Amino acid sequence: QVQLVESGGGVVQPGRSLRLSCAASGFTFSSYGMHWVRQAPGKGLEWVAFISYDGGNKYYADSVKGRFTISRDNSRTTLYLQMSSLRAEDTAVYYCAKARGMAVATYFDSWGQGTLVAVSS
Amino acid sequence: EIVLTQSPGTLSLSPGERATLSCRASQSVSSSFLAWYQHKVGQAPRLLIYGASSRATGIPDRFSGSGSGTDFTLTISRLEPEDFAVYYCQQYGTSAWSFGQGTKVEIK
Lengths: 121, 108
Hints:
heterodimer, A: 11 strands, 50% strand, globular, B: mainly beta, 7-stranded mixed β-sheet, 4-stranded antiparallel β-sheet
C-alpha cells in the first residue's frame, strides 16, 4: 500500500527558507517520478514541481522557479522541497504526489495528506 | 501553459441525483491526457479518472469521464452521500501540469 507522509511545515517569516520532506513507502520509490502540489487557503490545487525517477529531470511552476528546488534521495525513499525567499503567497498546504510510471506525461495516482506552510511576520 | 476552466463553480444537488461537471481547456489536450480528482477537506486528493475516460482502481462505476480535445466532462450518475466534495480536472500532457479551479458539489 502506497504511503506518502509529508513533514517540515510550519510558520516562517517572509524571505526565510524552509525544507519539506515526503517519506515514501509501499512502492519502489526509485522507479517513479514525484510531484509537489499546493493549495492556498480558499483556493484550488496548484502544481509546484516535478522530479523524474532518477532526479535527472526537474520542472517548476513559474511562480516558484528560481526560489524552490525539488530533490530526492532514492536510498532514503524521500522527496524534498527546498523553499527559499518565501513570500506570503506561498502560504499553503503542500502535498507530495506519486506519478504513474516513469514517463513525464502522466497523472498522479497517490497523494499524501499534506503539510501546512504559513509565511507570516 | 494550458489553462483549464471548470463549470459550474458550485453544484447544489440531492443524493440520488445526477451530477455533470465540465472542464474546458484553452488549447487541445494531447492524447486526452486529462484526469479528474476528488478532494475532501482535510484529506488527500483522490484520483478518479485518467486518460479522460478510464476509471482508476477501486473507483465506483457511477463515476464516468468523457471528452477530447478541449472539452471534457465528469459525470456522477447517482450521487451518494460520500460524493459531496470538490472535483478538479488536470491536464498532464505537458511538463507544466495544470488544474482547473475546481467544482464544489454540495448537498442541496
